Structure formats: structure tokens, C-alpha cells
Amino acid sequence: MKLVKYRASSAMTALAVLCGVVLGLSLWVSAVERPKTPEGATAIQPGTGHAAELSAALSDPEKKAQEQAATVEVKVTGIQLIDPAAVNEQPQSGQGHLHYQLDNGPIIATTTTKLSFHELSAGPHKITVMLASNDHQPLGPQETLTVNIPPGKTGSVQR
Fold it and tell me: What's the pLDDT score for residue 140?
């Protein structure tokens, strides 16, 4: 095998290094700024550089299930929770509210970070919580919780 020596000009070397740096930065930026969509996700709010984060948990799930109820507590950071009606449902960067949904029922749009569901029927139920913009479009972060109501006296599902 014959070794061939190649001598690149300093301009070409500098260009190659610059291209490598730009490519590396673009890959890093896309990995950092790409909104995540699975449960417990974060999304970069356009124009803010701040990540909106959401975490949801059931409060005292075993006791509440025995009472045919479920209480969800949510923690939100990186976004101001605001009633969309207060801003004529006009999207504003860094603002939003919560959407709660029990099973496939109607969506409850609110700024409250603690919400209870009562008189749940026996069996499994899915509660989805997500961040939404002032115009009710999803912002990305969401969590889905499950609760299993034991058999017994059965109530109707209240949403």
C-alpha cells in the first residue's frame, strides 16, 4: 500500500474545521431545543428559551379509590398559568393553562393545579393532564395517570 501525502491549504483546513464546528453546534442545538412529547416531557417555549415543565401525581390514590374518587396534583414550571379568557384566547409566549381529561370525556380547561374527580365507576380510569396555550393548542408537556376503582357501590362518572 502506497501512502500519499496531501498538503491542504490553511484556508481549506480552516473551512473544514469551521464546517465541523457548525455541524456539531446544529446537532447540539436540535437535541437541546427539540420538544419532547412523551409523558413528563418538556417543551421550549418559543421566544423565551425557557422550558415549560409539568409533573402530575395522584394524591393519596388508594384512599381516594376506595371513595370512588381521584385527586390530581400538578406542578408546573417555566410558564405562567393564566385564564385564556383573560387574554381573549390570544396565544402569548410563556403563558398557558392546564387541560384535564378523564378517560375520553370532555376536556376541563383551568389554571388550577389540583383537581378532583368524584363518583367514578368501578374499573380503570385514565386521567390526562397537559399544558395548553391560550388558544387551547397543546404545548407539549403532558402526563397520563391511571386509577383503578375497586368494585363495590358504583356511581356515575362525573367530569
Answer: 84
Torsions phi, psi for 129 (to 5 deg): -125, 130
Q: Quick check: is 129 in a domain? A: yes
What is the tally of structural domains in the chain? 1
Looking at the domain assignment, is residue 144 inside a domain? Answer: yes
pLDDT tens, position by position, 115-140: 999 999 999 999 999 999 999 999 98
| Residue 1 included in any domain | no
> By residue range, what is the domain housing residue 62?
42-149
Reported pTM:
0.65
d(CA 15, CA 79): 41
Per residue in 45-98, pLDDT tens? 444 445 789 999 999 999 999 999 999 999 999 999 999 999 999 999 899 999
Question: The domain spanning residue 84 has which CATH number?
Answer: 2.60.40.10
| Cα 129 from Cα 116, distance rounded (Å) | 12
Classify each residue of 49-70 as buried b or exposed e, where b means 16 or more C-beta atoms within 10 Å of its C-beta.
eebbbbebebeebeebbeebbb
Query: Which whole-number Å values give the CA distances from 26 to 49, 52, 58, 117, 142, in the listed order?
Result: 16, 22, 39, 45, 27
User: Contact at 8 Å (CB) between 136 and 99?
Assistant: yes
